[in-house]
Amino acid sequence: MNDIREGLKTYIETEIIPRYRAFDKAHREDHVRMVIAQALELADMLGADRELLYAAAAYHDTGLVEGRERHHLVSGEIIRSDKQLRKWFSEEDIELIAEAAEDHRASSDHAPRSLYGRIIAEADRFIEAETIIRRTAQYSLQHYPQLSREGHLSRCIGHLKEKYGDGGYLKLWIPGSPNARRLEELRAIIRDEPQVIRLTQQILDEEISAAEA
Question: Are 12 and 60 found together in one domain?
Fold first, then answer.
């Protein structure tokens, strides 16, 4: 990230990224850093502005401070209200950054409005089977503690099918991206009912044991 202006990088590193420490396990610092890295890689591939994408990726989930349901819209509000960003970006740039954050949500009912939105939506997904199943298990255990082990298993597999399965609501916006290939690999696992049950059970047991240790 040597091409990111020092002042912007310092501000993001000290004031924005630390906010993710307060979020759930699937949205901690490792997540935002993954999104930043993937967004910058796609920027180079598609000829987009790296600083604009760096900011959009860094802020994309900051709206989780007000809960999950509207977090993408709240992220946009946070970006528009952050006066510090005006040191490095024009009002037009800030609007692009805000729209990219608003459009990243997988369950959005509309396509991202710009290339930047498509890149952030794509960068937000690291579609690797074990990672996806583990994050699904972590979310279920954290947000539905009243469920039995069997209840968590059923909920996790239902979510995997609804979001990532054939006809699921997850949309990828960059044709030929690494995620497109990995999504097909994940779908093959989801289609194989015994395999997805076995993997999800194993990961749930690991997460339950870790929480009890």
Answer: yes
